[in-house]
Amino acid sequence: MNNDASTLTKGEIEDFLANGTARENLLRSYELMLDFYGIMLCNEKTGEVKRASHWRDRFCNLNNHTHNNLRITRILKCLGTLGFPHYQAPLVHFFLMETLVRGELPNIKDSVLNYFVFAVLDKRERRNLVKFAYLNYDRKDEFVWCPRKIQMMWSGLSALSHEYLSLDDVNEAKDKANETVKAESLNNVEKPVTGPRNADE
After folding, report:
1. What are the residue boundaries of the structural domains of the chain, listed by start?
2. A GO molecular-function term, please (predicted)?
């Protein structure tokens, strides 16, 4: 990290975005860094990425040298600031796949969930990434990256699940159930016949 580096001004960002050569150089630099991490850009339009041929060796490096996590966070923020925000979600999704689904990058999982996901600027994309993470997280009861209410919705659980009812709610539900049973019992009691049993009587 360069502690002497200054933050880009709004004017500098606008100048960069208007400079085709600068944007092209950034794209080439991005591909170079991806290659260092064992990843390749397979679609310049969408930002889709996949494993490079040498991914095993580079993934080992990522797992053993977690200082790269901060670099990746900065790369994601750079993409969002300098004209490639649509590249953010595909890269984060890739890391979610490798950490939560394939289990190849366990040592960077915390950084992916705590920093990579929330560097994505697009709210819809970010929400989709959090949802993907939740659905593929082993211990869902320990998932802390979105509210419980949203987790319940994603899991298809009812907000009135017994697990989330208070004791008073449970007792009230039991009382209503007992009242229903009593009412049904009374309705099923045979009533005395007061009229003629057939047309001849």
Report:
1. 10-157, 158-188
2. opioid growth factor receptor activity
Q: Helix, strand or coil for residue 41?
A: strand
The model's pTM is 0.76
Mean pLDDT of 107-133: 97
Which of 61, 92, 60, 63 shows the shortest CA–CA distance to 75? 92
d(CA 35, CA 120): 21
Which residue shows structure tokens 């850009």?
41
Number of H helices, E strands in the chain: 9, 2
8 Å CB contact between 111 and 66: yes
Q: Which residues contact 78 (CB under 8 A, 6 or more apart)?
A: 26
